[in-house]
Amino acid sequence: MLRKGYSIIRRNYRSSFGEVDIITYDPSTKTLVFVEVKHRKKDSLSSPLESITPSKVEKIKKTALQFLSETTIGYSSIRFDAISVVDGRVEEHVENAF
Fold it and tell me: Which domain holds residue 87?
């Protein structure tokens, strides 16, 4: 994400609803990006992204709304991405994951 020119705004933002792993800002599109990062070992039976449940998505969205109510950052849009990490390496970055 940093290679794409995004700036990291917050890591591990918590609210009473849950947590967002990373919040970034893309200045080229004025987009706030809320990122869920999932880790797995290589020999895991499921992919990291399969563990993002509908319940988890709802918690992330509510947490994002809380952040938006507190921020003074000017933005035009928001997006929810997911990143899968296997054995410490980024395997996949899905934009607009949910």
Answer: 2-94
Alpha-carbon distances of 86 from 7, 37, 67, rounded to whole Å: 23, 11, 28
How many domains does the chain fold into? 1
pTM of the predicted model over 0.85 = yes
Report the alpha-carbon distance of residue 13 to residue 10 in Å, rounded: 6
CATH of the domain at 46: 3.40.1350.10
The amino acid occupying position 45 is L
* pLDDT tens readout for residues 46-86: 777 888 999 999 999 999 999 999 999 899 999 999 999 98
